[in-house]
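wait is this the right file?? whatever heres the structure
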């Protein structure tokens, strides 16, 4: 399956995963006045609490609150993270380190599966930024009228998603149909992002996914995004471009891509379509 998968033997301790979900839940239970200090609708902020997807662009809002954090290098960003709940910084930092290492192991496996050097993705994508979205979907009185997150693909390279063990909500588009991804105890969901689709010259597909909400239970998810640095030049790996398989995408910098992504709304055509040769 070349678009997304659930990994079970990921090597991240179950206890740590449970702690991450617990501090995330506690964070969203803080009084609104305390959380309000972190509110911003500016997507360039390195820490911000926001709602919906991109409140500056969209006309229909989504039923989601989220805390977005930059996570690498940790010592640069952690001091500005919430100090309440008290173990937030430590728990989330430990998890960020583990997720990064897992992401790099997945890069090696993906590179080799394409016939590239194991180090190809990691080297090409460069010293990567790592972002996190802690998503909180409150119960929604009219869930048929909106989404938690509408259909989108992730603009980065690879996303590792920790989902609520008790409440389902993620759906992926598979063969033209929306399929629910039911949480499996201890599993992490790995979504291929747009940049791996480009680097693999379309052999890997960044997965269309969305989050639905429900009327009686809140739901949490913690998405970790590995993202190329902004100046990195991206495009199909040279070895994958042949007479039979010409380059599907032109080369571009991640900065150019990311700006394009955030200048649009979700639910439009795949952003990568705008980078075809
Ligand atoms: O909540 C989910 O399961 C999906 C979250 C997601 O797709 C994202 O944060 O990009
Ligand atoms: Fe996503």
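ok assuming it is, sequence goes like this
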């Amino acid at each position: 399956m070349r678009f997304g998968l659930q990994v079970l033997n990921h090597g991240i301790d179950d206890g740590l995963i449970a702690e991450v979900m617990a501090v995330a839940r506690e964070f969203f239970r803080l009084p609104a006045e305390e959380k309000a200090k972190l509110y911003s609708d500016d997507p360039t902020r390195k820490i911000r609490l926001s709602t919906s997807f991109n409140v500056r662009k969209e006309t229909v809002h989504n039923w989601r609150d989220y805390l977005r954090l930059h996570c690498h290098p940790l010592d640069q960003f952690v001091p500005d993270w919430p100090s309440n709940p008290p173990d937030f910084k430590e728990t989330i930092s430990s998890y960020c380190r583990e997720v990064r290492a897992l992401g790099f192991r997945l890069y090696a496996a993906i590179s080799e599966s394409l016939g590239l050097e194991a180090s190809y993705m990691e080297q090409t994508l460069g010293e990567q930024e790592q972002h996190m979205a802690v998503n909180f979907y409150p119960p929604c009185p009219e869930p048929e009228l909106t989404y938690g997150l509408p259909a989108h693909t992730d603009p980065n390279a690879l996303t590792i998603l920790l989902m609520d063990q008790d409440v389902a909500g993620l759906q992926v588009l598979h063969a033209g149909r929306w399929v629910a991804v039911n949480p499996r105890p201890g599993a992490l969901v790995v979504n291929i992002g747009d940049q791996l689709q480009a680097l693999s010259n379309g052999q890997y597909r960044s997965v269309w996914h969305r989050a639905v909400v429900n009327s009686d239970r809140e739901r949490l998810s913690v998405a970790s995004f590995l993202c190329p640095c902004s100046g990195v030049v991206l495009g199909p790996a040279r070895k994958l471009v042949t007479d039979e398989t010409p380059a599907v995408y032109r080369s571009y910098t991640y900065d150019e891509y990311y700006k394009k992504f955030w200048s649009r709304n979700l639910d439009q055509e795949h952003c990568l379509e705008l980078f075809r040769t």
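Residues 5-275 form a domain with the Jelly Rolls fold (CATH 2.60.120.330). so i think its the right one actually
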